[in-house]
Amino acid sequence: MTQVHLVRAFIRTRTRGRRAPTWTDRYALIAGLALAVLSLGRLALVSVTSIARQAEPSRIGAGLALAGLGYAGFLALARAFGPVATSAADAAWLVLSPLPRRGVLGRPAAVLLLVALPGGAALGVALLAALGLPDDPAVRLITAVVLGVSAAAGGMATAVLAQSSQAWDAWLQGAIAGVLAAAVLAAVLGSGPGRHMLASVAGAPVSLGAALAASCAATAALLLRSAWGALERIPARALLASSTRAGHVAGASAALDPGILTWIAEDAHWRGRALRSRPWPAPLTRRAASGTAASPALALAWPDWRRLGRRPGRLSAVLASAALPALTAQAVGAASTAVLAAGALAAAVACTTGARRDGDDPSLARLFGIGLRPVLAARAVLPALLGGAWLTLALAGLGLAHGLPPGPWWLLGPAAAPALAAGALRMARRRPADHAMPVLDTPVGAMPTGPLLWAATGADLALLGCAPTLLALTGEPSGAHLAAQALCGAAALGGYLLRARR
Amino acid sequence: MTETTVTVTGLDVELGGVAVVQGIDLSVGRGEVVAVVGVNGAGKSTLLRCLAGLERPAAGELGVLDRPPADEPGFWRDVVLAADEPAWYPGLSVREHLELMHAVHPSPRLEVGAALDLFELRTRADAAPPTLSTGQRQRLSLAMALIRPSRLLLLDEPERGLDPAFRARLATILAGYAAGGGTVVMATHDLDLAGAAHARRVTLGGAA
Predict the structure, then answer these.
(1) Distance, CA of A187 to CA of A59 (rounded, Å)
(2) Which of A303, A357, A366 sits opposite B87 (nearest CB)?
(3) Which are the contacts of B117, defined by CB distance < 8 A and separation ≥ 6?
(4) Does a structural domain hold residue A38?
(5) CA distance A240 to A104
(6) Is residue B109 part of a domain?
(7) Taking the model in full, what pTM does it have?
(8) How does residue A272 score in pLDDT terms, banded at 50, 70 and 90?
(9) For chain A, which terminal residue's Cβ has fewer other Cβ atoms within 10 angstroms, N or C?
(10) Are B117 and B100 in contact (CB under 8 A)?
(11) What is the distance between the alpha carbons of residues A61 and A38, in angstroms, rounded to a whole number?
(12) Domain check: are A69 and A213 in the same one?
């Protein structure tokens, strides 16, 4: 440990030019921390004071399901990104050295704990929001926060243990699956058959909750202790891999280009996986007799279909996420247009990898020598199908959950599909954010226009093309809405294809 | 049809206000292999990018297959550029990448199986390209470039990452391509490769 301390002190003196922190540095640090605490504290206060004393039984299941999904996502992210990772320089020079590994990894481990604590507190408040505050608000709040923080810290510790042991990794995967299953169960129970059971959970005595929180905290403490011991045993290859990912993430964040993150996840998924080559579908291959290609553009679009078929879990997750708008509507009492729009566009974007790859690096596209418009038209089919199917399922789910007034809402899904495909393709082919664009002074602070425009590219066309559906969501669906949506969707896709340039 | 595939007259290229290529003249005939050699920074890759229509010259005339080079599908149906490693389609194997090229082009030069054997990729046919070694990925890039029909091959350091034995085979492949009526212009540092491919050597001295 002392050796690591000496090495870090040496690096610090060299990189900071031997300059000790001045009073200005300390003031800026303390002021920044105080500002962050005040802002987050105010947000927490508003969240806690807005919690109803008595939760509606119809909302408990959906609220618990959303909290469960959030926790499962937290665990899955921790597992995907390491979670223990160092800077690229530390990975190259300190991890591969005789220094005690726990000393090298102590700081990243502390950062993980600092991430887990507020995340756990938010999870606790979310649980409380779902269950309500029937009595003893202070005790219930403390119990929920302890429960959430214990769950988050324990989950993070399990992820650290999973980094050094296959057995723990299996446990972590089991825990994620279990939390997901519990979330689904809560959603099902909350939809009718088990509301009384959930209501009894919400009305459980404070002492029972406190006992549960105490046992969770004890388990989390044990897991944290084991994880601290496991830091010494994390293999270098796992650390180097997670540090490379962390380096990519840092680079993507610095360049404000989150698109890179999806390539990191994509490449990590396929790296080291054995594939089984399958022949191209006969209608897409060239006709031997005539010697002409059946449809080169369709053949070039086929990799997106094959990739989706090779990730059935991902496809299932995308389709299952169509239940989120209904869950959100049940939890908050009204349909969320933002969840619907974001979900449908995300589903469509999930299958535009070919367009993204060729947009980022057109080398392969040049080798194929096919015109852009036919290829884009062929590549629009899959995002239209998936985006349209997601929206159809989500609208049907909202109708069943009484999140929308009665009506054939689901018909708007297929009608909006072309617009979703156009937005997804535009998003997939957007250029990196231009950081040279001007910064606007707004009442809420400086706003860089480059990243804003980057973020809006794609979503703009999808929103424009889905305007009739968005309008219909403010009232009731009509034939006019449906016709307008069909026209608007087709116009959005047609216009995009006509204006497409390399 | 003219017998000259590439003509370059008085080519000047500036990058960021700095002249990287100055006063280059070049004529490459059909069925010829030309090896552009020179020290680092001499402008070899820039010349290839100009011939591919990806770099606009400051001055001079360029002609590729009787027309100015242009980054458009009609041009790429006749011309192949193999420079830096391309970004592979995720989720596709080595064989499927080659089959995709096969499906898109009506009259491929090679069958997929023959290409796997020729470029020694048979044992890695079911692997995803990112899992290959550097040399194997370079072989896949070259296989993608050579499986499809074309009239002009532009290769930027094709020897990158290849072992000596495969470099000799590559020279034979390129000589065979030229014997079939194709034209090759490659930037290279491997004079043995250039010699074995019976290439005419063109030396760039650098603008600065």
Answers:
(1) 9
(2) A357
(3) none
(4) yes
(5) 13
(6) yes
(7) 0.79
(8) low
(9) N
(10) no
(11) 32
(12) yes
